[in-house]
Amino acid sequence: MNSTYGVVAVLVVALGAMLVGAYGLRVSRTTSDFYVASRTVSPWWNASAIGGEYLSAASFVGIAGLIFAHGPDMLWFPVGYTAGYLVLLTLVAAPLRRSGAYTLPDFAEARFSSPLVRRVASGLAIAIAWMYLLPQFKGAGLTLHTVTGAPDWLGGLIVAVVVTVNVVSGGMRSVTFVQAFQYWLKLTAIAVPVVFLLLAWQAHGGQRINGPEYPVFRQTTTVDFDTTTVIHADHDVAFSGRGLVDGARLEGDGLTLTAGEHTIAAGSSFVFPAGATVPHLESLPHTTNANWALPMAAGGEFPLYAVYSLILATFLGTMGLPHVIVRFYTNPNGRAARRTTLIVLGLLGIFYLMPPLYGVLGRLYTPELLLTGDTDAVVLVLPSRMIEGVGGQLLGALVAGGAFAAFLSTSSGLMVSLAGVLSQDVLKMRGVRGFRISAGLAVLVPLAMTVLVGGIPVADMVGLAFAVAASSLCPLLLLGIWSTRITTPGAVAGMLAGGLPALAAGIVTISARTNDQWFHVFLSRPAAWTVPLGFVVMYGVSLMTPSKVPANVNRVMVRLHAPENLGLETNEEPSMSELRRRGEM
Amino acid sequence: MRPEDPPAQRVVVTSPRTGAPRPRRPYPASREITEQSQLGELYMRSLIRTQRTLGLLVVGLVAGGLATLPLVFTFAPWVSRLQVFGIGLPWVLLGVVVFPVFVLAGWFYVRQAERSERQFAELVERS
């Protein structure tokens, strides 16, 4: 891949984001502007911004990579990411906006009037935001590495710097512009290449991908191994090149990789002929194309548990993500919050039509990624692989730019909310200065963590953040909004009972290697047991402590649920009918 | 003025009956709500119940329908081998069909939720 265009695209996106941010800086003057854009954002802008912020590394590169390796079971990721907004729309959007909360801790305090509930909620929000930032930085590293061969940590560092500068200088107003712009950039970057890729696929004969064979190399392919890799060959494979296989030094032509498991040492470089069956990473499923194309056919322990856990985590986790909540505050009222969410559903649906196509075409055109394990790179590699010449390279650069936009926008959204929580609840520094210091702090922790974690697919890491959100903050929101019986001890106990196990499971999954243990799936997909735990404990403890129901619960419920057109005194701005009635009396 | 004329009757002109209570204006229900009276609580409870039922219904239908798919794919594998326009049924359902379904369900929810809020507002303003 010629890296010049890719580097230019990444630079343009980074500079563009900073320029739009600087434009916003001239607009944002007061602290209120800085945080919430003075609530002057229209539903379309706001919906684009939510889409731009939400479509992260996981959506842009991760989903295609997982589908490429594992097949249609992974379609539950995009389905769940979108369904999360349907749940948000129907059960949370309007009441959350009416609560007037800017962050989840604000909601916790508004609903329960308890500093303790607030502290627990902010601790969880910070943990979730850090878990979510981590894969963004990993994804940026991967993209830059694929495009230019730069070391893995550099991409993450660039994203961190750009986002920090942008957030610190512009605040929310500029971020709203940046985010809305980024949604359309990302949609273009993933949709335009797809059109050309499908045309190229047709021109190549429109080969189907449901035959009984394993993926094969379409052309003579050189594979470089950056790390020591355990692979599995389903058939004997002829190859040439030089390197260490199972500890034996091999060099020259006419070598054979026998069927079975092999360890290939870092630094090896092999050339495989066209038509050879692709050996693949040992940890990836051993499936023929026909089996790969079927759901629930890949095997693995407890496949049904894994799918339902993923469904629970994504459907319910979206509402607990800190950067999603902040966006709702920029709606003028509850009705606008609903309309915004409905537009978001449409925008996400259009975007998510694309990644599966990359995954499927990757099976045909870039099967060597199964061998190196860089499955997340499939979106980035495909255009230049399928289309010859400058056209393919330009499309590749477009995709790389879009991927970078994905990391930048999600990271800035997370940074804004994370810095908001940090400055208010941890550092206790009000105003713009505290916000800026917190932004610096917010970025350092996940950047340091990228050094520690191993090769987990980006989308899986994001899935863990969703699981924590679904088991802790989701019960708080759903039960807090719809039940008057929830007590302060119940809220705290429920958040901890659901959130801490999910958090622990996530940390074990990303730091230790448990892949071959039978209980691996219960740690890497914890939602199916932690979500019910959170709900049951929150409701159960509340029923056991009926005297601890917050005294003002009815007043809060009125605030959350009374329509704006009623003009109650609990609504922030008096409506016309309210003014009329006050005049009469 | 002749003396035999009867003295002019003293007429007492009274002010409007300020002291008497005016006929009570109906107490607006929106004040019942803000003042947390029992009636106001009743109003709010009914609105919350309506909205909660609607939300759970929409989520339940859509998510419940989707959640049967893994079971179907596991226990009736022939279903996942069906082809639509040459593409496997699971791909069509999870890759394409779900998204317009989400938008439709969301649109239906917004319409119903706003309708019940309008009805609630009318009820409150009328009383």
Automatic annotation (TrEMBL), chain A:
It is found in: Cell membrane. The keyword Manganese does not apply. GO terms for molecular function: acetate transmembrane transporter activity; symporter activity. GO terms for cellular component: plasma membrane. InterPro entries: Na/Glc_symporter_sf, Na/solute_symporter, Na/solute_symporter_CS, Sodium:Solute_Symporter. The chain crosses the membrane at residues 6-25, 45-69, 75-96, 116-133, 153-171, 183-203, 305-329, 341-361, 394-422, 434-456, 462-483, 490-512, 518-541. It is a multi-pass membrane protein. GO terms for biological process: monoatomic ion transport; plasma membrane acetate transport. It comes from the Bacteria. CDD domains: SLC5sbd_u4 (cd11480). The keyword rRNA-binding does not apply. PROSITE patterns: NA_SOLUT_SYMP_2, NA_SOLUT_SYMP_3. Keywords: Cell membrane, Ion transport, Membrane, Sodium, Symport, Transmembrane, Transmembrane helix, Transport. Belongs to the sodium:solute symporter (SSF) (TC 2.A.21) family. This is Cation acetate symporter. It comes from Umezawaea endophytica.
Automatic annotation (TrEMBL), chain B:
Residues 14-29 have a biased composition (Low complexity). Residues 1-29 are annotated as: Disordered. Keywords: Membrane, Transmembrane, Transmembrane helix. The chain crosses the membrane at residues 54-79, 91-110. This is Uncharacterized protein. It comes from Umezawaea endophytica.
